[in-house]
């Protein structure tokens, strides 16, 4: 574990939840690996400026959630909570049905994530979302793949939910599952690039705009529209490709 722990960047809505988010971020950033000890009470108190009772409440929440376990006389250790344990095992040979099912899952999860982000996002998190959008839009005007920029934008929105479990699942989907889904559909002809880019630019701008306005219902609608459109575009492309092979 890295002993130089970062200070909290902004005041959490709940002190105990702030400690949970803090430890979860250390785990996600690989500052603490499964099997290693979490920071001591004294280290967390020093980093976050909270009381000992708040730290203990947070540790109780994390134990109940299966994030950590306390070993008598030894300390508190990170458990191996990989996405595989949540039923998200990788499928390396994705079918068309797998790819469309993954988009359905994203619609369910990311629609709510957008609504939560609109409600809970901090100013710093909004700045991060906008920076990711700017990078995405800048790369839309250049030849090349915008998948990495799209991933960063969607994960910045997920992070603004301040729900470490939702971020955990969406990080796995975007970084592990989506590359396989894109690979499985890479041979399918799509709309002309300029048509596709114009659509996704507007859809992403709509999502970020609603989060900036802190309008959760419009944020949910914008994200659902974007991902539903993505699913429909992909479904049609597969159907046209299959029809052309007959």
UniProtKB/TrEMBL annotation:
Keyword Transcription regulation annotated: yes
Keywords: DNA-binding, Transcription, Transcription regulation
Name of the protein: FCD domain-containing protein
Superkingdom of origin: Bacteria
Classification via Gene3D superfamilies: GntR ligand-binding domain-like, Winged helix-like DNA-binding domain superfamily/Winged helix DNA-binding domain
Matching Pfam families: FCD, GntR
Occurrences of domain HTH gntR-type (ranges): 13-81
Molecular function, one GO term: DNA binding
